[in-house]
User: Which sequence fits this backbone?
């Protein structure tokens, strides 16, 4: 199994439908099951919505998907003024009582939970997150 | 797309996707609930943190009013989302 796909998306919440279609086309072509497709969708949506919320001046985001040797590799990159490493986001929501949780805060926690590997680099004002998802 | 269908017995059926784009639609609907409610997720394919936040807010609001929010028929992916956030220990989740 191998294949790859990449596309640029406008940095607005309204792009999510196009992103969902992009992921679905990749998943269909790579013969991924529905659960894996949903997990990939979640990983990308959480990074994307975080980007829309905290870096609204950035015009676009580049997303690439690659299937290789029983792994899915997600590359998420965009312009940014300063480094933001998603691996360093707080991930302690699981042990907080529900009444103490804020409405937000689940997103990057879920990225950390569903990703098998996360790498991050920040070079020349371009932020790149690479997530690897292992297939069973 | 997200479809919200009220059914008999204070049951609400969700169909499709509860993501950040669809979350405002769910928020409009859930914010006026004022009784114990069961949400049937059998036909909900996908949820993200945006949808999760709306369910948590609805749970908290109903709980403060003395009502319950029960979730049924989660697929494996949605069950994992609840498990990884610890919310499976907070919500009442039924499989049937």
Assistant:
């Amino acid at each position: 199994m191998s294949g790859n796909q990449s596309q640029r998306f406008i940095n607005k919440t309204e792009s999510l439908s196009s992103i969902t279609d992009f992921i679905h086309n990749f998943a269909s072509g790579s013969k991924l099951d529905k659960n894996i497709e949903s997990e990939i969708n979640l990983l990308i949506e959480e990074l994307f919505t975080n980007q829309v919320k905290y870096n609204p001046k950035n015009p676009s985001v580049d997303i690439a998907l690659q299937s290789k040797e029983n792994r899915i590799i997600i590359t998420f990159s965009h312009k940014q003024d300063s480094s933001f490493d998603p691996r360093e986001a707080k991930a302690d929501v699981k042990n907080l009582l529900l009444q103490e949780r804020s409405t937000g805060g689940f997103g990057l926690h879920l990225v950390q939970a569903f990703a098998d590997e996360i790498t991050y680099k920040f070079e020349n004002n371009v932020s790149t997150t690479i997530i690897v998802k292992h297939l069973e | 797309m997200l479809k919200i269908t009220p059914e008999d017995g204070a049951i609400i059926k969700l169909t499709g996707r509860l993501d950040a784009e669809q979350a405002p639609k769910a928020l409009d609907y859930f914010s006026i609930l004022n009784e114990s409610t069961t949400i049937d997720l059998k036909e909900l394919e996908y949820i993200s943190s945006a949808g999760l936040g709306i369910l948590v807010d609805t749970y908290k609001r109903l709980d403060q009013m003395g009502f319950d929010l029960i979730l049924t028929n989660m697929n494996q992916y949605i069950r994992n989302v609840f498990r990884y956030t610890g919310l499976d220990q907070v919500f009442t989740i039924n499989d049937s």
Q: What stands out?
A: Helices of chain B lie at 23-30, 49-64, 76-85. Chain B touches chain A through 25 residues (CB under 8 Å). Strands of chain B lie at 2-7, 11-18, 37-47, 69-72, 92-94. Chain B has one domain: 2-94.
